[in-house]
Amino acid sequence: MLGKQQDEEDVRRLFQPFGHIEECTVLRSPDGTSKGCAFVKFGSQGEAQAAIQGLHGSRTMAGASSSLVVKLADTDRERALRRMQQMAGQLGAFHPAPLPLGACSAYTTAILQHQAALLAAAQGPGLGPVAAVAAQMQHVAAFSLVAAPLLPAAGAGAAGRGKAAA
């Protein structure tokens, strides 16, 4: 984590020994204060890896609450998966509440059977937790698209080449 007072020039000086910096951006709040996070784009993957090895956990910046975290920036796919996991947690997708079986009991039963099959397949040999979550998210997306009209409205009323995040 960066301190609130570090700016782009401070970050450039910190990362410059590891290679050519193509871009450097410190994330800021709407009021202009640093969020304690920056993105540094190097000319090559090797330079980014050298910065990770040399700086990750190596120091605590002045004004920061934790040591410096240097890693490759998440890909668009990783960010999307994390957002889906957060949404699924909010919707209770991993611990669904019992559904009332009314007029659409056959439909509800089919959805529950589909969910059970996806979970069983995702937990099969050779598939890790990411595959299990991905299978569950596909189900949540399909269920949401198909079942949305049947449910009441809730609350009715960089990674480019050589990009490292600090």
Automatic annotation (TrEMBL):
<dbReference type="InterPro" id="IPR035979">
    <property type="entry name" value="RBD_domain_sf"/>
</dbReference>
<dbReference type="InterPro" id="IPR000504">
    <property type="entry name" value="RRM_dom"/>
</dbReference>
<feature type="domain" description="RRM">
    <location>
        <begin position="1"/>
        <end position="75"/>
    </location>
</feature>
<keyword id="KW-0677">Repeat</keyword>
<keyword id="KW-0694">RNA-binding</keyword>
<dbReference type="Pfam" id="PF00076">
    <property type="entry name" value="RRM_1"/>
</dbReference>
<dbReference type="InterPro" id="IPR012677">
    <property type="entry name" value="Nucleotide-bd_a/b_plait_sf"/>
</dbReference>
<protein>
    <submittedName>
        <fullName>CUGBP Elav-like member 6</fullName>
    </submittedName>
</protein>
